[in-house]
Amino acid sequence: MAWVFLLIAGALEVTWAVGLKLSDGFTKLWPSVWTIAAMILSYVFLAQAVKSLPLGTAYAIWTGIGAVGAAVAGIFLFKEPASALRLVSISLIVAGIIGLRLATPA
């Protein structure tokens, strides 16, 4: 169940990262509310995950999901550049996430 909590926490991290952009510096009410709620829930699910997963693994995967998700969201939602170097870098983060998962007992 800890891995499910960690995936949910990562998805919520992506949600609040996108929300930061949409809130326009917390000047728009509903995107700001959505962002803050996603932040809180992300931390709650991360806290549940680290009850049984190693802290370093859980935190690195959580931030990796957030980084990859935010980069991909930026490319698709906000038309940010998808250069070859950027895509290779995202792929390296994904490889790190997979490696950490494989190195951690279930």
TrEMBL record:
Where do the TM regions start and end? 33-50, 57-78, 84-103
Recorded hits in Gene3D superfamilies, A to Z, give:
1.10.3730.20
GO BP annotations of the record are:
xenobiotic detoxification by transmembrane export across the plasma membrane
The Gene Ontology terms for molecular function here are: transmembrane transporter activity
Location within or outside the cell: Cell membrane
User: Which PANTHER family does its entry note?
Assistant: GUANIDINIUM EXPORTER, SMR FAMILY PROTON-DEPENDENT DRUG EFFLUX TRANSPORTER SUGE
NCBIfam families (UniProt xref): PRK11431.1 (NF008512)
State the family named in the UniProt similarity comment for this chain: Belongs to the drug/metabolite transporter (DMT) superfamily. Small multidrug resistance (SMR) (TC 2.A.7.1) family. Gdx/SugE subfamily.
Protein name, entry field: Guanidinium exporter
**Which organism does this record belong to?**
Sphaerobacter thermophilus (strain ATCC 49802 / DSM 20745 / KCCM 41009 / NCIMB 13125 / S 6022)
